[in-house]
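**Discrete fold encoding**
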Amino acid sequence: MGTQTTIEKLEILADAAKYDASCASSGTSKRNSTGGKGIGSTEGMGICHAYAPDGRCISLLKILLTNHCVFDCHYCVNRKSSNVRRARFTPQEVVDLTLSFYRRNYIEGLFLSSGIVKSSNHTMEQLVEVARMLREEHDFRGYIHLKTIPEADPELVHQAGLYADRVSINVELPTDAGLTRLAPDKNARQIEGAMGKLKSDIVEAKDNRKRFRHAPRFAPAGQSTQMIVGADAATDADIVGKASRLYDSFRLRRVYYSAFSPIPDASAVLPLKRPPLIREHRLYQSDWLMRFYGYQPSEVMQATEADGNLPLDIDPKLAWALKFRERFPVDVNRASKEQLLRVPGLGVRAVGRILASRRHRTMRLEDVAKLTVSIAKVRPFIVTADWRPVLLTDRADLRALLAPKQEQLELFAA
């Protein structure tokens, strides 16, 4: 095979990075070069690859350093036994691409991952070198997310945190049994050990920043991880339980869920079909319930069906409300914030506005309707000054009434 051009490498390694979902840039500290020093910024608008919590588009150059790999994880398109085109960047090439794309206003930051080439330590050294060159040699102040390698020396992973805004280590699969079966080169205890070390380093750096003004920052946007959904027999209840434990144990900023996607020349131990994408969406909704709505993991698990999976036709918040109808209806003029957050169709912002408005006036149904997308979804679960659901909350066909209607889209609709 002849020498590959940078464009050919970029085509291969950008495509290979598409399976990694964990590239949001929320939580980083604000930096910019408006004072005439350095280059880049963690703020601004551009071509979108990810979204910050406030809705801003964050453009990231998302690539692999290489898709060569000495591991043979069954679910990975870049595994050792896979028959795919291979490519490899040098650290200097990644730096040049990042700066070139930034100057053209294509990107605002870099998301860099890699297959394992030669050894975990060698690959980690290359990843750290990219970040070091950007920060120290080019004074790059944009966003950097490094996907670190749990098998690498802890000191190398620590160096990654000194240069990157966010660091992440993928747990890969929800259960230890699934990891052993589908990723024989990986070890669950080693992965969680590396995540624990990152957590300790982040906590120590924050403490040092409080005591010493010039103490170095360490991964100011925290750490995240990713789980593959549907590659093994793990249920949604298993995944929710694992995610909750990861949040509690390692103070993660995010757990990302990636629906398994069939790959070329797939291993015989993998499913023949991908799970419905809506399953991934339901898991993100359940994650939101635990993070922002005060639900305990056990409560989210109560919303699952008999097979341990969340229903696909309705969201988990509605599924929980239908199972616990004795908790409803709630009076929007008297209920606590915690009770209102349980009402299907009411989001955090809507609940905040209800609490603010009812200090000055008695809330009516039309007032609530202005705060939600679908008042029909809310009506069975609330009481207002002019509305009481009476028997609606207990109707046997309530789920069918509230489930989104399935309709065939028209190809040539006007």
Notes: The beta strands are 50-51, 57-58, 60-64, 109-113, 143-147, 166-168, 223-229, 254-259, 330-331, 382-383. Residues 25-29, 39-48 have pLDDT under 50 and may be disordered. The longest helix spans residues 188-211.
